[in-house]
From TrEMBL, chains A, B, C, D:
Protein name as it appears in the record: GuaB3 family IMP dehydrogenase-related protein
GO BP annotations listed: GTP biosynthetic process
A Pfam family per the record: IMPDH
Lineage of the organism: Bacteria, Bacillati, Actinomycetota, Acidimicrobiia, Acidimicrobiales
Keyword Transferase (UniProt): no
Keywords: NAD, Oxidoreductase
GO MF term set: IMP dehydrogenase activity
Organism: Iamia majanohamensis
Amino acid sequence: MAEIEIGMGKDARRAYGLDDVAIVPSRRTRDLDDVDTSWEIDAFTFDVPIMASGMDSVVSPTTAVTLGQLGSVAPLNLEGLWTRHEDPEPLLEEVAVKPAEEAWAQLRAAYAEPVKPELIRDRVKEIRAAGVVSCGSVTPNRVEALADALVAAELDLLVIQGTVVSAEHVTKGNPEPLNLKTFVRRLDIPVIVGGCSSYRAALHLMRTGAAGILVGVGAGSTSSTRRILGMGVPQATALADARAARMRHLDETGVDVHLISDGGIRTGGDIAKAIVCGADAVMVGAPLAAATEAPGRGFHWGQAAVHADLPRGARYPVDRVGSLEQVLHGPASDDAGTANLVGALRRTMALTGYATTKELQKAELVVAG
Amino acid sequence: MAEIEIGMGKDARRAYGLDDVAIVPSRRTRDLDDVDTSWEIDAFTFDVPIMASGMDSVVSPTTAVTLGQLGSVAPLNLEGLWTRHEDPEPLLEEVAVKPAEEAWAQLRAAYAEPVKPELIRDRVKEIRAAGVVSCGSVTPNRVEALADALVAAELDLLVIQGTVVSAEHVTKGNPEPLNLKTFVRRLDIPVIVGGCSSYRAALHLMRTGAAGILVGVGAGSTSSTRRILGMGVPQATALADARAARMRHLDETGVDVHLISDGGIRTGGDIAKAIVCGADAVMVGAPLAAATEAPGRGFHWGQAAVHADLPRGARYPVDRVGSLEQVLHGPASDDAGTANLVGALRRTMALTGYATTKELQKAELVVAG
Amino acid sequence: MAEIEIGMGKDARRAYGLDDVAIVPSRRTRDLDDVDTSWEIDAFTFDVPIMASGMDSVVSPTTAVTLGQLGSVAPLNLEGLWTRHEDPEPLLEEVAVKPAEEAWAQLRAAYAEPVKPELIRDRVKEIRAAGVVSCGSVTPNRVEALADALVAAELDLLVIQGTVVSAEHVTKGNPEPLNLKTFVRRLDIPVIVGGCSSYRAALHLMRTGAAGILVGVGAGSTSSTRRILGMGVPQATALADARAARMRHLDETGVDVHLISDGGIRTGGDIAKAIVCGADAVMVGAPLAAATEAPGRGFHWGQAAVHADLPRGARYPVDRVGSLEQVLHGPASDDAGTANLVGALRRTMALTGYATTKELQKAELVVAG
Amino acid sequence: MAEIEIGMGKDARRAYGLDDVAIVPSRRTRDLDDVDTSWEIDAFTFDVPIMASGMDSVVSPTTAVTLGQLGSVAPLNLEGLWTRHEDPEPLLEEVAVKPAEEAWAQLRAAYAEPVKPELIRDRVKEIRAAGVVSCGSVTPNRVEALADALVAAELDLLVIQGTVVSAEHVTKGNPEPLNLKTFVRRLDIPVIVGGCSSYRAALHLMRTGAAGILVGVGAGSTSSTRRILGMGVPQATALADARAARMRHLDETGVDVHLISDGGIRTGGDIAKAIVCGADAVMVGAPLAAATEAPGRGFHWGQAAVHADLPRGARYPVDRVGSLEQVLHGPASDDAGTANLVGALRRTMALTGYATTKELQKAELVVAG
């Protein structure tokens, strides 16, 4: 470990972000057609190693189905607008054309409505009915209360997600805290859980029995977690640490937990770099919010932006790039790198000579100033 | 120590600023309600590890009281406008609406008025009368002359502050220089003294008998001390060095001297990072000058900006963020990170699993490019 | 090798770009007139260690001749406009004055026309007829199909160029992939092949029997290869690695393969730095597209920008600097460094005391923050 | 020496600029009045460790006298306008108000006039007559031809200056090159010679018998030497290397050669940092061109900008800061750091506890990101 002396009384480790690294072509190249980008988690195989971010500006039941059909998987935010409102589409339509402050006030009000278990059931059913893997995301605070509804809804895959999720939540209060270790093992749905950003935190999350771990806390230097809370680990390092935890967990238990990189992806090249650092797949928000079908209709926000006392993030406009299909599979019309994410990943694999994403994880990296 | 060869004839040490580091979440998380941000110095306990900067644009007798009631402590500049003028409020009101140059000229003139010991007495009395800890700041040059007045005023806590304050001031001139070691021990008021920015300088200041040390000289890369004087140490390193000095001093004397980080704080995340580097509390100027009650009324300046031959710093406009209460305890209305500083610190503590600021000092850091 | 731990499960190497380094003057200086910038490849000697980039905005048969007469060598893109169209000059004339989108659409359409072997023959003949070395560039995909036409055309020097070219292309498909090792040895034309960007990739390309290697993949931090594909090695490192491969190849075979640095050159100083890192010559695109005679007529583009699904690069306007002669040999009219590239290189050689480019390769470098 | 592997076939050294470092206050402070900024070279003592740059926009006979009276020393460019023209003031007056291109053309024409030995004599006499040290600068190419005129003029101090000056100039041509070693020892005037930027180059220049060495080649990252020629060493490293050469030369010969840092100084803090790195004094151009009396009248240029084929640098406008006295000794009216350079240096010395510039050289440095 590269320990750095910050000063005589405190050390730190040097950490690297995806922007700090680049992939070195090997001595082989490969046909574009021979490249396989698929990945597996639990019993599911997905053609595309890209998960949507469970955000209301990205995933609606409709886009969840479209994304599933395009080879991806998209968790619906089960504490978001679609489980609070019978039909949030008119609201989203309305706020998309309103002045920013007015729109934001109206959205915040919409989040005050309680989550309705029967809507969870209906949304999941709607997605399953289309023949794609149904996936939903919830926060650690709510997950126990919603567990029965999730099982009843026959959800295929559950994401338990927070800014930071630990396997050991400490409380002095009366309500027993969520014991992820018991909960995940008891639940009859495969679970992806995170974020986390260190070897130890990842290892402990793996020990809960989760099928996958979300890796990423305040990964980008412009991240509001980093700016407001002072907390975060650049993503290349977070992934490489979690990769080591995964190897240890595999060694100790024989169970291979998957790593999903969450944060800071803009291009297919970023996806390739996350995979080389150790990810099996990446979670992607803003690039999909830029799709014409995205429910945010040209705006992107996370639920942390709605926080009453300490909002992190905001609702901001995004340039539309093209359809979800174009964002994932092209064609791209310019060289911004924001369309045809999978095509770019495939080309990187072909030009660096790796046939599968598993093989791509072995590629060499340089740290480029 | 990370010695770097600048060239064949000169070495240096690599130093890090707060912007260079980020806090790594541990494997635990914690309830927000279980977090305790208080700190102690001498006989005083403060709920909030934030001291105001003793600057006329930040601390008036009125805001000193408000800040004390909000859990903070605010030294009044005892060589500033409030001890030179019976009532500087009309002046501050006036200059706030004047063109910049005219305003500045009028302010400079106001600083030409002599400091009046009876005003020191009255101001301190006014603050004490409100039931909060009275605190005042003076420069090393003046402190001996004002000592009697300070004791007579029954000041609770004294800050002796300059750009650089050393325990060993050398002079060839006739007037004996201030001997901090004798002075601090003789004075019947607990003293916080600084700034300093190295292990040795901090250690020697601790040996004067001071209750706390201000750590920070030219900490930021845009600091005028750094730019004009070429002098300074990035703050993470300055704190980590002072932390080592504190440990040695504790070991040698059994006395635990407190470290107050002075410089470069903008958000609650910055406060958390300063604590992880070794601070018990932080001194904060500009973020409080942005409060609606701040005496600077939308402007911020330090007394070094008034210097006749070599002004350092200027009077510059600040965006108003909200009331002092909002700046410290929220709610924040956007994700700028400049409001709800304490709320952000609490959240960082909860998400990284540390219950007290003392525990938070043990958190891990990364150096993030 | 400077291995860096990205995290516990992944290492990387620190890499440097040309912008990161600077040349250290030695203890000698030298007369400007005593400096020799020539280089040799196969049986050819060129006065100027600058190859043009085989791009339609830079090299036409006319500019190929001019550049040859100026001491340089300019490969014509044998899959570009000049081998698809009898006379592309009117088209280039036309699009130069059209709105950007319209121009681009028309250019893309022009690239849809098939490559005509008889035009290859005629273009090569035209260049040879002017008494300069004829040089053409093709992609690995096409080179076998065009081999007979190239030999028939009596081409002097062939460049086989792609984003990444490896000596070991893997395919599952039916058509046998290009075996560079057999192909290059069989072909009766000296070959320059690349890009590559690692020791091993360079070494394997050298073993194909190529006379020269193009070094450079995604070299610049703004490179679209780096941004879109996540792939690339900063150029100083790519060259220094290829230099080691060349030394090994020379040691093993007695054959000295030449290194041509491809990417990121703007000034004569950049050329000097590339040579110090290990290059014998540099390939230059944008600086020549800025010449008044350049066929792009104030615009610059690569063929990758025409890609149907995943365009990399774009057609962008360039400021005109002066004639090709001025760009190479001056006089320069300002201090932008974009004119008199050879004059600048000569001056660097004189001021650092090196008489030949071979000697300049020994100069010392600093890494400058 | 901190060797860095650029790649497998090339190493480099890490180098640092003045902007990369900051001075660490020691455990002492000192009275401002007890600080001594003087330095000595040969038989001369100067109160202020600042030499003017021998540029026509900075030094005229008049400003040479003023600067001498202010404690500085200012070499007149003996190949500049004042030795080519009887009275260049009207020309300078004229071009100061002309459009940039016209002005530049007229200035270039003025430099075409030959240098006149009798004007050298008169200018030197004029400066000496005012009772200040007369100093002039010439290029290595011309110095032999002008030697007699310089001795005849009774010049006190000679600066031999070029972008790079070596003690070993190699030529194949007929005219014997300047042998600095013989020339400097023969000449009856103390000589300062440079620029140089490495240990070895500095050492060899010292062995010529020079009284002082100019250290600095392409020091700044925006330097045109760095940009156009690819050549240069960041200044902190150049000084620290020259410092080691000086120590060796002192050890070998008992002769202490002085180091004058040339390049990149903007503030008094920069001067302090150069001294800590090893300089006895600094050469300053732009900060003095900003004085109201400067002959450039609001413009600044070096003679390299006049070069016929490869101009380096340009004529650019400078903001006027105040009189020469204000630039050197204040008062400063704002916190830009460009006025009261000596006052800032004195304050840095006082706050870091060093009484003389010789002592200041021992101060500690940090490398600040």
